[in-house]
Write a structure and sequence with these properties.
The protein is an alpha+beta fold and about 240 residues long. It has helices at about 5-40, 40-50, 220-225; strands spanning about 80, 95-100, 110, 115-120, 130, 145-150, 170, 175-180, 195-200, 220.
Length: about 240
């Protein structure tokens, strides 16, 4: 090893550690979440369930079931595979829950988790959003519930005909049928796994919903469903109802 190489190695190591430190400072929670999702076994559990749901029926929860006095009912049958604050895409935090039904496209019903007013924007093939004027956990604020993937791989909608594109403020009751689980990813012919994605979205303060893609615009669903659904603190096992206090 010559003198030039000897001098270069410490410089490269210093640059490497500086880069790691910078990334940790900027994206530490997102990097940690990505590794946690893999290390916790959640990714493996989702893959195992998709491949053989019949082998993991004990992971499933019933549609319309409720934990104790939690305000929301579970909107669909299945395995809650990914949680709020998970990360299966580098540097991106999951904004809600992914519930996998274990059946074919269009076979697993999706219901309203709470009373509210339903909107389906004109260009939404697979998505709905429910406005709840009084948050059941904080009646002084309005909250929204976003649901998506209710379409087949080509974007053919699986949403109930009562809610066509352009629907605004249709009154629904907890337990009303909204549609069926699908696997539309937003890109025709490139499906995702068959599931329902649901997230609780903050109001912008002017009566509109914020962008659900950013986790700071969404809320921890745990208290709404009465079970530990925040990946940052949830157990590695499948979610179950919290014990009564």
């Amino acid at each position: 090893m010559n003198a030039k190489t000897t001098k270069t190695i410490p410089i490269l190591l210093a640059v490497f550690f500086l880069a790691v430190l910078t990334l940790s400072l900027l994206f530490g929670n997102k990097v940690n979440a990505y590794f946690r999702t893999w290390v916790s076994g959640r990714n493996k559990a989702v893959i195992d369930y998709i491949r053989a749901p019949q082998d993991h029926s004990d992971w499933e929860l019933e549609a319309l079931s409720r934990c104790s006095d939690a305000p929301f009912v579970l909107p669909t049958h299945g395995f809650i595979g990914y949680l709020f604050n998970d990360s299966f895409t580098p540097l991106k935090l999951h904004t809600g829950l992914d519930i996998f039904g274990g059946k074919q496209v269009g076979q697993t019903p999706v219901y309203a988790p709470y009373d509210g007013f339903l909107t389906r924007e004109l260009d939404w093939k697979s998505s709905l959003i429910l406005r709840i004027p009084q948050d059941p956990l904080d009646p002084d604020q309005q909250v929204w519930v976003y649901m998506t993937h209710l379409a087949d791989p080509e974007g053919n909608s699986l949403i109930e005909a009562a809610f066509p594109p352009g629907t605004q403020e249709a009154a629904v009751k907890q337990g009303d049928l909204l549609g069926y689980q699908g696997n539309y990813s937003g890109y025709p012919g490139s499906p995702t796994g068959i599931h329902l994605h649901i997230s609780i979205v903050r109001d912008d303060g002017e009566g509109k919903y914020l962008n659900e893609l950013h986790i700071e615009n969404t809320m921890d669903p745990s208290p709404y469903f009465g079970m530990p659904l925040n990946a940052a603190s949830a157990l590695k096992s499948s979610p179950v109802c919290l014990p009564l206090q």
